[in-house]
Amino acid sequence: MTGLRQTQHLAREARHLAPGASEEAVHGRRVFTEGRGPVLTDLDGNQYLDFAAGTLTQSLGHGHPEVVEALTAQARRLWNVHDSATPDRADLLDLLARLLPERLDTYAFFSTGAEVVEAALRVVQATAPPGRNRIGALRHGFHGKTMGARMLVHWDIGHQAFSGNSVLGYSPYCYRCPLGLEYPSCDVRCATLVRRHIAEKPNVSALVFEPVLGAAGVIVPPPGYWERIADACREGGVLLVADEVLTGGGRTGAFLASDLFGVEPDLAMLSKGTASGFPFAVLAGRAELLRRPEAATSGAYASTYASNPLGIAAARATLEVVERDRLIDRVRALGEIMEDRLRVLESRFDRLGQVRGLGLLWGLEFVTDPTTRTPAPETARAVYTTALDLGLRTSLGGHILRLAPPFTLDEALLEEGLRLLEKALERVIA
Ligand SMILES: Cc1ncc(COP(=O)(O)O)c(C=O)c1O
After folding, report:
1. How far apart are CA 333 and CA 340, in angstroms?
2. Which residues, other chains included, contact 63 with Cβ-Cβ below 8 Å and sequence gap of 6+?
3. Mutate which of 140, 218, 269, 271 to test ligand 1's pocket (most atoms within 8 Å of Cβ)?
4. For residue 374, what are the CA distances in angstroms to 103, 364, 379?
5. How far apart, in whole angstroms, are the C-alpha atoms of residue 144 and residue 263?
6. Residue from 56, 117, 246, 258 whose mutation best tests the ligand 1 pocket (most atoms within 8 A of CB)
7. Structural domains in the chain plus CATH codes
8. Residue 63 alpha carbon to ligand 1 centre in Å
9. pLDDT of residue 313
């Protein structure tokens, strides 16, 4: 239940705040005042384990001391000099060159996921051979809310679609296979069709994809899906543009989720996991593309907040900790525990239709019954609010709950969070 002080605060805000906040905010109705590590505190003094890690941003938890220190020091020194060089920027460039695959050795810095997606689209457009004027995307992909990004979004995610000039391919959503097939007897037909519609078309310049589809409910492709598509894109001259805004930075157990599937992108976009919640995004690409004169015209990678010193300080500090403390190994280890516990819940609660994920990124899909698989957003919402009342924050979107705790969580708190989730499921479903 939302406490009294929070209720009063929300009523005051509602007088002037435009509606249209996230489902989490609307149904959660909490006023958070502080975050420390994996724990949030609200205005009434209640505490929550944050298994949404902000919005999958807090890989190091909230207020990591080294990030706070880096930001504070930078805030005292310098905030904005357009996109001029600053001392930290060279360190961040070197750090990214160590963390990312060797091929992706050139970088540009932006502020948000949608902004970096737009930047990638500009590079694709600028470098596309004549006649290649269309861009491929996958159903159930999410790439942001700016017009270019929305052009790639072909499903109802709460805002009006704008299909623009993109060509649509099947996502590997086995639980709701649009072709009515079963893996593996399907022989990954969805991938064969993506090849045919995108990879083998002479007018498609790039496929923009989430290697694991996050917003749609952590859709993890089965073996064979990416292999088949990536090879065909390579052969067909279609650029592979990995939207790793959500998956990048270690969350799936590799710095780029693409690596887990053997996909070698030409461009990759990262944001959420890079700077501990400070607005920041990275466009990483092959030098040959990002340095090509058509793409790198004067000002092409600039904007008011591009390369801003605060974002760079936050990203440098965050990624240094990820590297130094070998946190991606930890993601894999904690991910195994999570998978074991979640599989037990999946078999126990029939309205928990499917549990999917890898590393510290998991999606729970709720259905009215396991046979019809009708989506059950009201159940997801009830589990979300019940878990909050019990002291666990998750991430809600339609009939899906996502779990994405910080990488720094200790095992006891991971178990504690999963126990709270189980309790919430018992209250709502049993
Ligand atoms: C894969 C992906 N791309 C792009 C975006 C857009 O990012 P932003 O909300 O920072 O614009 C998101 C946001 O969730 C995302 O998950």
Report:
1. 11
2. 34, 35, 36, 37
3. 271
4. 43, 14, 11
5. 22
6. 246
7. 4-63+326-429 (3.90.1150.10), 65-324 (3.40.640.10)
8. 22
9. 98
pLDDT of the chain, 430 residues: tens digit per residue: 899 999 999 999 999 999 999 999 999 999 999 999 999 999 999 999 999 999 999 999 999 999 999 999 999 999 999 999 999 999 999 999 999 999 999 999 999 999 999 999 999 999 999 999 999 999 999 999 999 999 888 777 665 556 566 788 999 999 999 999 999 999 999 999 999 999 889 999 999 999 999 999 999 999 999 999 999 999 999 999 999 999 999 999 999 999 999 999 999 999 999 999 999 999 999 999 999 999 999 999 999 999 999 999 999 999 999 999 999 999 999 999 999 999 999 999 999 999 999 999 999 999 999 999 999 999 999 999 999 999 999 999 999 999 999 999 999 999 999 999 999 999 999 7
- If phi > 0 it is left, if psi is from -120 to 50 it is alpha, else beta; for residue 391 that is left
CA 144 to ligand 1 center in whole angstroms: 5
Between CA 106 and CA 320 the distance in angstroms is: 18
At how many degrees (to 10) do helices 411-429 and 327-348 cross? Answer: 20
Ligand 1 — pocket residues by CB below 6 A? Answer: 112-114, 117, 142-144, 210, 214-215, 243, 245-246, 271
As a whole number of angstroms, the distance between CA 20 and CA 161 comes to 16
Measured in Å, residue 349 CA sits from the centre of ligand 1 at: 31
Closest ligand 1 atom number to CA of residue 117: 4
Per-residue pLDDT at 424: 98
User: Whose C-alpha lies nearest to ligand 1, atom 2?
Assistant: 143
Task: State which ligand 1 atom lies nearest to the alpha carbon of 247.
Answer: 1
